[in-house]
# Entry
Amino acid sequence: MTEAAEKSFKNLHVKKPLSGQKEITKIVAVSSDKILPGDAAQAAYASGYPITLKETCYGLVLTGTEENVNQVIEIIRNLDKNYIFVKDRGFPTGDPRRCRATRNGGQRPGFYTLHAEISRMGTIGEALDNYDAKVEKINAEWPSRPDSFKLENYITETLGESKVKPKGVQLKKSKEDEN
# Structure
């Protein structure tokens, strides 16, 4: 391996964790058409920082000192900054309170929430792309609120008078219906 190649794979300014130094865990969610979680993992491995990395279907889970994790996140986000998102995680990788291996399998707690968040990240990324490109904002018009009298009458006509109504409740007639 050449010296230039060796330097590109080995970060000379990496801070080794000291005993008792606080470690953090972050989720890196990849929602990009250009970058896959495997690409993000390769960039993290190539950075040379001493972190624990777990590749998942949605991205990565990184554990290490705050400084090292944040440096790796910066490297990963530079791959496609508007489509790679970071979220704090309260437990390190392999923690028995969260690990599926000690809970006999199944989805990890919070997976469905994370899945719902990730499904919206593409839209957020597009909005960030538009913001960066200084695309002109569109003023949307809110739909008008339907007249409650017309809505009640429509429901009654559609369902018929046999619709069960709570006791003491009668449909009010609009002024237009009285004329």
